[in-house]
Design brief:
By secondary structure, the protein is an alpha+beta fold. It folds into two domains: 118 residues, no CATH class; 136 residues, Gcn5-related N-acetyltransferase (GNAT) (Aminopeptidase), CATH 3.40.630.30. It has seven helices and ten strands. Helix 4 packs across helix 5. Keywords: Acyltransferase, Transferase.
Length: 269
């Protein structure tokens, strides 16, 4: 029997509904793994703001219920005032939990969709990993932050902001750094273990030391550490166009769970 367009739409809608519990859980652990300094709610919208750090994950409106679409224009204007008070450009983060009516409104108002990100998960129970850790995690936030800024090529003036975010993570965290005798820090990652879930955050390798296996090396240590602490599933976020990172994560058994993106208003708004 042929499949009609209506059938395809129904199957897509059913697939989206079926994965919403997973999306909700991963969003919740993601908030705890990268905590904003100010979190306010408007209905099911989470308004996340952080004065010291510019990360969009820390400064965005995140709708958390597809059925919540009341008073959209009023609530957008209210959120806009909060962002203006922080000196931030307002952005809306679209996940499968955002209402279609909100996205239609943003599109009709001329907002721009940008920066698509893939949230991936992997089973840690049966993943083949070495019995021993090549690199032990540190709990020295200052050392990790210095290394992370250096590897990412970020202005050292961002140290207080990044240190504040990392220090405010409440679940157990492993701070991993690979150092070279000559070059200093060459790779970093942060792994946050939240019950049976482990979030692998910001895997980074300095540009001049890429394609040497350092990404796989530090990711292996982070995942092994998480499994030793009884985590059963790992998750991470990666840019949809970051082909080298996607290839690395696929080798470790990561698969797509869902995607999100951001919306920003027209410049003249």
């Amino acid at each position: 029997m042929a499949t009609t367009g209506a059938d395809t739409s129904l199957m897509h809608a059913q697939s989206t509904i079926n994965k919403l519990p997973l999306v909700r859980r991963l969003e919740a652990v993601g908030f705890r793994a990268w905590p904003a300094s100010s979190v306010q709610y408007d209905g099911s919208w989470q308004v996340r703001l952080t004065a010291g750090h510019p990360s969009k994950r820390l400064n965005s409106v995140v709708p958390l219920d597809p059925s919540d679409h009341r008073d959209l224009e009023i609530r957008l204007a209210k959120a806009q005032r909060k962002f203006e008070a922080y000196g931030r450009l307002m952005v809306v983060r679209e996940t499968p939990l955002a209402s279609p009516q909100l996205i239609d409104l943003l599109r009709d108002r001329g907002w721009t969709r940008f920066e698509e990100t893939i949230v991936m998960i992997a089973d840690l129970v049966d993943l083949e990993l070495p019995d021993m850790l090549d690199h032990l995690p540190s709990h020295d936030v200052g050392r990790y932050v210095d290394a992370s800024l250096m590897v990412d090529g970020v202005d050292p003036a961002m140290k207080p902001a990044l240190a504040e975010v990392v220090s405010s993570i409440k679940p157990p965290s492993g701070l991993f750094v690979i150092e070279n005798d000559d070059a200093g820090p060459v790779a970093t990652t942060l792994c946050v273990q939240d019950n049976d879930l482990a979030g692998v955050m910001s895997v980074a390798v300095s540009p001049q030391h890429r394609r040497k296996g350092l990404g796989a090396e530090i990711l292996t240590s982070a995942l092994r550490w998480a499994r030793m602490r009884s985590a059963k599933t790992a998750w991470l976020q990666v840019g949809a166009t970051n082909e080298p990172a996607l290839a690395l994560y696929t080798r470790f058994g990561f698969r797509e769970a869902y995607r999100y993106c951001y919306w920003r208003p027209p410049e003249d708004v």
